[in-house]
Amino acid sequence: MFQFSTTSALLILLGFYGITFLFTLQIGQRQENADSYMVSSGSVGYSMSAASMTATWIWAASFYAAASSGYKYGLSGAIHYGLWGALMILFIYPFGRRFRKLAPDAHTLAEIMHARHGSASQMMLAGSNVVGSIISLMVNFTAAGALVSILSPLTFVQGVMIAGVGVLSYTFWSGFRSSVFTDFGQLIAMVVAAVIIIPVIFFKLGGPELFEVGMVNLTPEQASFYSPTAILEQGAPFFVAVLAYAIGNQTIAQRLFAVREDLIKPSFITATIGYGSIVIGLGMLGLLALLAGVEPIDGDLNNLIPQMAATYLSPVMVGLLFVMIIGSLSSTADSDLSALSSIIMADVYGKQISKNRPNPTTMVWVGRLTMVTATLLGVVFASLKLDILSMLIFVGALWGAIVFPVIASLYWNRVTNQAFTVSVIVAFVMFIIARFQLFEIVGFTALAFEVLATIGAAVVIGLMSFGFFGQRAGLVIGGIFGIALSFYSIGFLRDYIVLLSSLTAYGASALICTVLTLLSKQPPFEFKTIDEKVVEFHSEQPQSMENL
Amino acid sequence: MSSFWLTVYVLIWPVIATGVFLTLCVSLVIDIKAAKKSGKSLV
C-alpha cells in the first residue's frame, strides 16, 4: 500500500496549515473586536455562510463513518449517514430565524437561554457545549492521527500534535472570523477532492462491471435499499443524534448569528445540498469497497477510506485525499475552538465572572486562552483512540435532552426555568441509564423506556413538522406518528439500545417539560424582553465596547 | 436494479457537488465585489 515519505507528509501538512495561516493574515486586526471574535459582523454574505455551514457540518467522522456505513449496510448505508445529516441542516433554519428574531445581537444560544430562564439553563447549554466541543476536537484530532499514521511513517501522536498546533495557529488571533474565512477554502478543497476521487476509484475498480461481479459479496439486506437493519442500527439513531447536534451545538448557532438575517434560508439550503452530496458520495467508497471485497486493515472500518485511496489512487490523488480529510477535520476543529471561546467569553466570563461588566480586551484574551486549553485537552484525549461513530451518537444524545426544552422555551411563553432545568437533568439521567444499561432493560423497565422513546420519536417528527408547517401541523403529525409507531416500538425497541436511549432523552425531556409547564402558575413570559436583556449585557459597557 | 442505475446512484453525488462548487464560486465573486464596493470586510 502506498505511503508518503516523512518529508512529503510534513510538507503537505505544513503547506496546508501554512497557507491557511497566511490567508488569515488578510483579515487579522491588531486589536480584535470581542463581538467579531465571537460572531463576526452578523451580516456575513451567502457564499461565506453557506461554505462555512457546510465545512463545519462535515467533520472527519463524516467521511469515515459514511464509508463505514456504506461498507457495513451496503446500498443504503451511505444514505443512512449522509441524507439525515444533510436534512438536519435544513431542519435548523426555521428555528434559526426564530433565534435571530428574538435576539439579533446574541453570541451564543446559551446567552438567549440566560435571558429566557436565567443562569441554570444558560450553564446547562454552555456546559454541554464545552463537553461536546472538546469531544469533537478529540474526534477530529484522532482522525488526523489515524490518517497520518496510515499514510506516512509519522506516528499517530505526531499526527494529532500537528493537527492541534496547525488549527490553533490560524484560529488563535481572529477567532470566529478566521474560522469562517478559512472554511471556504477548506470546503473547496473537499469538494474538488470528492468530485475527482469518487469517479476515479469507481472506474479503477471496474466501473459498472463492479456491480455485476461484486453483488455476490453483499448479503440480501446489504443489497436492499430498504434494509431494516440499516434503518434501525444506523439511520434512525443517527437521525436522532444529528437533530440534537443541530439545535444544541454552538458551532451551528454561531453561524446562525453571523449570517445576514435574510440569507439564513438560502445559506442553509445550499449547505444541505453540499453536505449531502459530499458525504453520501464519499460514503459510496464504503459500498465500492464492499463490492470489491476489500477487507479493512486490522478490521477497523475507520481505515477504509485511507486504505482505498492508498491502494487504488496515484500518489497525487492520495495527496488530494489527504488534504481533503485534513481540511474537513480542521474546519470543524477551528469551529469548535471558536465555539468554545465564545461560550467561555460570553457565558462564563461575561455573565458569571465579570457579572455583566467585562473588560473587552480581557474578554478577547479569555477567548484565546480558552482555545489553547481546549486544544491541549483535545490532543490529550485523542490519545484514548475512541470509536468515532459511537462518540458521535453519544454527543448527539447528550444534546437530545436539551432540544425540546430549548425550542419550547423560545416559542411557548409558559415554559418555566424549573420545567427547563428539571426536564433536562432527568432526561439526561434517563439517557445514561438506558445507554449504559445501568438497570437491566427488561419487563416493566423496558416497557417504560419504550413508551418514553415512542414519545421521543413523536417529538422529533412533531418538531420537524412544527418548524416548517406550524404548531397545528406539528401536534397533529407528531401525534399520529407517535400513535402509529407505538404498535411497532413497544416490545421491540428494547433490542436497539442506542436508538432507545437517544429517543428516551427526547421523550423524557418533552414529557417532563410539558407537564411542569402546564402545572405552573407563573405569569407568561414576554419574548420581547429577550432582545432587551441580551442587548443590556453589551450596553452596560458602551464606551468600552466602542474602544474594542 | 440494473448496473446503469447503480452507476448513476454512485456518480450522481460528485455531479451535485460540482453544482454546489460552481454556485459557491460565483457567489464568492459577487460577494467580493459587493464588499469592495461597500468598503466592508467579507467576514
CATH architecture of the largest domain in chain A: Up-down Bundle
Form type of chain B: rod-shaped
Low-confidence stretches of chain B: none
Strand/helix succession of chain A: HHHHHHHHHHHHHHHHHHHHHHH
pLDDT averaged residue by residue of chain A: 91
Structural class category of chain B: mainly alpha
Quick overview of this protein structure:
Chain A is mainly α.
Q: How does the SSE layout of this entry go?
A:
The complex is a heterodimer of chains A (about 550) and B (about 45).
Chain A: H1 6-25, H2 34-39, H3 46-57, H4 60-73, H5 79-102, H6 109-117, H7 119-151, H8 156-171, H9 176-204, H10 209-214, H11 228-248, H12 250-258, H13 264-292, H14 304-312, H15 315-353, H16 360-382, H17 388-411, H18 417-435, H19 443-469, H20 471-489, H21 497-519, H22 528-539, H23 542-546
Chain B: H1 3-38
Q: Could you explain how this protein is built, in words?
A:
- The complex is a heterodimer of chains A (548) and B (43).
- With 548 residues, chain A is mainly alpha-helical.
- Helix content of chain A is 78%, strand content 0%.
- Chain A has helices at 6-25, 34-39, 46-57, 60-73, 79-102, 109-117, 119-151, 156-171, 176-204, 209-214, 228-248, 250-258, 264-292, 304-312, 315-353, 360-382, 388-411, 417-435, 443-469, 471-489, 497-519, 528-539, 542-546.
- Chain A is globular and about 70 Å long.
- Chain B is 84% helix and 0% strand.
- In chain B, 23% of the residues are buried.
- Chain B has 43 residues and is mostly helical.
- Chain B is built from one helix and no strands.
- Chain B has one helix at 3-38.
- The interface between A and B is medium-sized, with 42 and 28 residues.
Which keywords apply here?
heterodimer, A: Sodium/glucose cotransporter, 2 domains, 23 helices, 0% strand, B: mainly alpha, 1 helix, 84% helix, rod-shaped
